[in-house]
Amino acid sequence: MSDNASSADTRKVKGNTFMKDSKFIEAIVEYSEGIMLDHSNPVLYSNRSLAFLKMDQYFYAMKDAEVTIRLVPEWPKGYYRKGQAEEGAKMYDLAIISYQAGLKACSNDEVLQTAMKEAQIKYRLDLDSKKRKRKKYCVIAALFGVFIVIADMFGKPHYSFIKYPWMRFTLISMSGFLGYIFASFLLSLERSQRASLLQPPPELMQESANKPPVAPKNQFTASSSQASHSIGDSTVSHAKTE
Q1: pLDDT tens-digit profile of 63-73?
Q2: What are phi and psi of 97, to 5 degrees?
Q3: Where does the signal sequence lie (predicted)?
């Protein structure tokens, strides 16, 4: 092991200690220092991804997870970290895609299988919630249309502006439709807000910590057994640091 790799491992151990004490900022600093010493260590990126996740910094958590995947495509933890970041932003459809990609590379990983099932449940619940919201606004708007019709009928019967039944029906229907459109607009804004949590914030970290050079070929991707030996047992809970 080179001096840089040894020093990076020391930084990792310090970072893990901070993580156990819930000192996530200090942990991120240690992992970042380790990454500067050893850009090709996927564990440092994975652990820092978890630290960012604990601080609800989903963009940085996702980016570190992507680097982990790029360095070690056969290690399930990178996919798990990425999916967790996307779930944190409530982008459940993206999380499902990440877990599916992980299961293609690591088909027998139980943690990924469980995570994908949970994400699918959350995705369905989210869709149901959106349907209820559209229906709610549609009904409220339609009732408002009914109120206008009743007010027009009984307010001044001789000066009614909505004289014919088809006009009343059209008004109520259009009111409900406008309610549906308004609800869809609000849901679109909500989707944009969620997606923004996975977009780079104004104050970016140093480029050297975010965009490391790709690891030398075959250094970590020679085989699953070599990867497990270099990184640690992949059966360990993915919610923990290595």
Answers
A1: 999 999 999 99
A2: -60, -40
A3: none
> pLDDT tens-digit profile of 62-101?
999 999 999 999 999 999 999 999 999 999 999 999 999 9
Tell me, yes or no, whether 179 lies in a domain.
Answer: yes
Q: For 144-167, what is the mean pLDDT? A: 78
Place of tokens 């459109």: 181
Written as six digits, the tokens of 92 are 């459940």
> For residue 59, is it within any domain?
yes
Mark whether 184 and 222 lie in a shared domain. no
User: In whole angstroms, how large is the CA radius of gyration of the chain?
Assistant: 26
pLDDT of residue 179: 95
CA distance 237 to 242: 9
Question: Is residue 162 domain-resident?
Answer: yes
Q: What pLDDT was estimated at residue 217?
A: 37
**Structural domains counted in the chain:** 2
Question: In this structure, what CATH number is given to the domain that contains residue 16?
Answer: 1.25.40.10
DSSP one-letter code for 216 = P
| Domain range enclosing 67 | 3-89+216-231
Can you tell me the distance from the alpha carbon of 152 to that of 161, in angstroms, rounded to the nearest whole number?
A: 7
Q: Residues 221, 166: one domain?
A: no
